[in-house]
Every structure is written in C-alpha cells, then in structure tokens.
Design brief:
β2 (226-233) and β3 (238-248) form a beta hairpin. α5 packs parallel to α8 (174-196), α7 (151-164) packs antiparallel against α8 and α9 runs antiparallel to α10. A 4-stranded antiparallel sheet has the order 2-3-1-4, with helices on one face. The protein has 2 domains: 2-196, no CATH class; 201-273, Alpha-Beta Plaits (2-Layer Sandwich). By secondary structure, it is α+β, with helices and mostly antiparallel strands. The protein has 11 helices and 4 strands, in the order ααααααααβαββαβα.
C-alpha cells in the first residue's frame, strides 16, 4: 500500500512539474510575443489574440467539451488525471502571468523555438505519467492506442489548422503563421524524443569465436532472444556463427559489457531499427489487421 501511494504521489508530482514547464513556455515566451501554437492552449491563445478573452477561461471551456471522450475511450484513470491536469494548467494560466518575468528576447524566431521546446518537454513528462492536458492530447493518445503513429504526427495534423487560423485575425500576417509553425515543429520533435527516446530499439550483430557463451549469458541476464546465423570470414575462410540480438537502447551498455567480458576481440555492429513487434516489444496496431482477425473469427 505504501509503495502504491508513493508511486501515485510521484506520478502527480512529475505531472505538476510537467504542467509548470508547459504553461511557463506559453506565459513567458509565446503569449507575450503573440505567437500561435497548437492544441487547445494554442486555440485558446488564438481566441485571446482575436478577442481579448483570457486563455485560462477558453482553455477550460474547450476542454470541458472534449473531456468526455477521454472517459469513454481511455478509461476513468485517464479521465481523472486529465481533470487534474486541466484544472492545474488553467490555474497556472491564470496566475503565472502575474510573475514579473517574461522573455526579453526580441527575436520571435528564438522565442518560438524555446517555447516549442519547453512545451514539448512539459507535455512529454505528463504523457509519461499517463496524464494529458486535454484537447488534441486526447486525440493523440486515442489514435496512438490503436494505430502505429507517433504523437508528434497527430499534433501536426491538428495544429496545422489551428495555427493557420491566425492568418484571419486582423493585423496578423503570414509571418505570424510561420512563427507558429516553427513552434509546432519544435514541439512535435521534442515530444517524440521524450516519449520514444528510451523505447528505441537497436539491432546488434556480434561476431566472436565464443558466440555460444555470449548467447547464453545474454539470454539469461538480459532476457533477450538471440539468433545464431551461419557466417564465414572471407579473409580467414573460417566458418562460424554470427549472433543477432534485438534490444532496447537502454540495454546497450549491459550487452556491451557482457560481450567484452567474454571476448575483448569480439566485433559488434549496432544499428537503429524503426519498429520492433513481438514478445518483449510493441504490439502490432492497425485497423486492417483487426478487421482481418474479426473476419477469420466469423
């Protein structure tokens, strides 16, 4: 019970930190320079630029409409955390502007990049804890639950329309839209790095005369499968086995230590793979495969 309580408190603490980073990026870098962004916060900022209606209020109203979708599709746990994030974010949008500090950088390009980067970091932290700030965050989590699509790509599709609407605000020009798109690209890139950085997979080819000992130790200590492929060194004309291992990026140091401990002369080739499906990795997602499965069952 104490462990569960600790995990819960830790999760909400990290979400609060992520929310602060996210909202601060808006109140300190984006809104003071009237730079548009994506998501509900971006839409709320566009409304403020056009009408003067405060971001905190429009943020709450829009999210109240969208929040029910999270309850229905993503579960009650998601909904509760989302309510917390929306409420805290709205309060921060209300009170953080009262802090007497905003960016004193005159270049809107730099403010767009900094704002987008900080916003992506904040949202990434929130997502890692199973939370959401609502709006297009909900859309992104729903789509990535059923489809193999990065959250950043979902945000881009939604944000193109939101940021483009700035062009229709009197006094705004195409330049303002471009700055918003710069913020969008920065945000999307950073959030993908935060969410998928530690989940990236690597493919290793290991060439060693002690391949059996290496394979045995990798299987037992890392719990990863090893495939032994027939190989022949062309220079030595010696037949042997080459090991192929797929593992997470975070396990690279461990397997390197295992190989070097057994055979310091071993040759290791490391390459990044885009997607890995199967036991111990991701599950295949996609409407077509789900449809085929149902067809077979019928």
């Amino acid at each position: 019970m104490n462990i569960n309580l600790f995990k819960t408190v830790k999760s909400y603490l990290f979400m609060t930190i992520g929310l602060f980073i996210f909202v601060f990026s808006w109140t300190a870098f984006l809104i003071p320079n009237e730079i548009a962004g994506g998501g509900v916060s971006g839409l709320a900022s566009v409304i403020q630029y056009a009408t003067g209606f405060e971001v905190s209020y429009s943020y709450l109203i829009i999210n109240a409409i969208l929040l029910g979708i999270g309850f229905l599709i993503l579960g009650k746990g998601f909904g509760f955390k989302t309510i917390y994030c929306i409420a805290v974010a709205a309060l921060m949008f209300k009170f953080l502007p009262q802090i007497p500090w905003v960016s004193d950088i005159d270049d809107k390009l730099i403010n767009s990049l900094i704002g987008g980067t900080m916003s992506g970091i904040g949202i990434g932290i929130i997502f890692l804890q199973g939370g959401s700030t609502g709006g297009t965050d909900i859309v992104a989590l729903i789509i990535t639950k059923y489809r193999e699509m990065s959250p950043g790509r979902v945000f881009i599709m939604c944000d193109l329309v939101i940021i483009g609407s700035v062009f229709f605000i009197p006094g705004k020009t195409l330049e303002d839209v471009i700055y918003g798109y710069i913020e969008m690209v920065s945000f999307s890139y950073v959030i993908d790095m935060v969410l998928t950085g530690n989940r990236q997979s690597l493919q290793l080819f290991i060439i060693s005369n002690k391949y059996a000992e290496i394979a045995e130790k990798v299987t037992k200590e890392l719990g990863r499968g090893v495939t032994a492929l027939d190989s022949m060194g062309w220079y030595s004309q010696t037949e042997s086995k080459m090991l192929m291992v797929i593992l997470r990026k975070t396990q690279l140091q461990e397997i390197s230590a295992i190989v070097k401990d057994i055979d310091k002369k071993a040759f290791i080739s490391v390459s990044t793979v885009m997607s890995v499906y199967g036991q111990g990795f991701d599950q295949i997602k996609g409407g077509k495969m789900i449809w085929n499965k149902k067809q077979k069952e019928s």
